[in-house]
Design a protein that fits this description.
2 domains; 6 helices; 59% helix; alpha+beta; four-stranded antiparallel β-sheet; 212 residues; single chain
Length: 212
C-alpha cells in the first residue's frame, strides 16, 4: 500500500498546485506558470499509464503477456522530480496559502521512491532467461514459507534469489508481477534451485515419454 500512497501523493500535490495557481495568475507570471503547468500535466502521464496498465490491462483484462508498468513508473518518477521543482517554483510568482514547502518535499520523496522501486524490479528481472514466477507450493519443499500464491525468482549461480510478495502486487501474475519494495520478503536458497531443477527434469522426461 506504500506504493499506491506514493502515487497518490505524486499526482495529487502537483494537481492541486496547478489548479490553485490558475486562479491567481498575473500578466508577469502567466507565461511561465502556464508552461510549468503544461509540463506538470505531461509528467503525470507515465504514472497514470503505468497504474492503468498494471491494474486493469495486465491483471483484470489480461490483454498483456508482459508488464511494462515498472518502466512507466521509472519514467514517471524521474519526470515527477524534475517537473515538481518547476511547479514549486510557481509559488515564487503566485502565492498559495496551502502549498507549503514540506508538501513539495513529500512529493519529491514520493517520486524518488516510485522511481527507486521500479528500478529495483527492473534490475531483478533484467535477465529474462534466468527469472520467472514460481508457485509457493514448491517453495514449501525448500522450507520456505510464503503466504502469497507465488514467488518471484532469479537464478544466481547454484541458488535462487526469491521474493515473496507480502502486500500490493501490480501486473499479471503470469508475466512479471510487480511487487514494489518493501512489499516482499526476499532471500537466497540453494534448495529452492534444486527443487526447480528437479521439476524441470521431470517435465522434460514426461515430454519425452509422451512423444514416444
Amino acid at each position: 500500500m506504500v506504493f499506491i500512497f506514493a502515487i497518490l501523493i505524486a499526482l495529487v500535490v502537483p494537481a492541486f498546485s496547478m489548479f490553485a495557481v490558475m486562479f491567481r495568475l498575473n500578466e508577469a507570471s502567466a507565461v511561465r506558470v502556464t508552461r510549468n503547468n503544461a509540463l506538470g500535466l505531461l509528467s503525470a502521464v507515465p504514472l497514470l499509464v503505468g497504474f492503468l496498465q498494471s491494474v486493469f490491462v495486465s491483471s483484470v483484462w489480461k490483454l498483456s503477456d508482459s508488464n511494462q508498468a515498472p518502466t512507466w513508473f521509472l519514467v514517471g518518477g524521474i519526470a515527477g522530480l524534475v517537473t515538481g521543482m518547476l511547479l514549486a517554483s510557481n509559488l515564487a510568482f503566485v502565492r498559495v496559502r496551502f502549498m507549503r514547502r514540506d508538501l513539495w518535499v513529500m512529493c519529491a520523496l514520493a517520486n524518488l521512491y516510485i522511481a527507486g522501486a521500479a528500478l529495483d524490479h527492473l534490475v531483478f528481472f533484467w535477465d529474462k532467461a534466468g527469472t520467472g514466477v514460481m508457485a509457493s507450493d514448491l517453495a514449501q519443499e525448500a522450507d520456505i514459507n510464503c503466504a502469497s500464491e507465488y514467488l518471484l525468482v532469479r537464478r544466481h549461480g547454484g541458488s535462487l534469489n526469491y521474493r515473496c510478495p507480502t502486500s500490493v502486487v501490480l501486473g499479471n501474475p503470469f508475466a512479471q508481477p510487480f511487487a514494489p519494495w518493501p512489499a516482499y520478503e526476499s532471500g537466497d536458497s540453494v534448495k529452492l534451485n534444486q527443487v526447480l531443477e528437479r521439476l524441470q527434469k521431470d517435465t522434460a522426461r514426461a515430454g519425452a515419454s509422451s512423444e514416444r
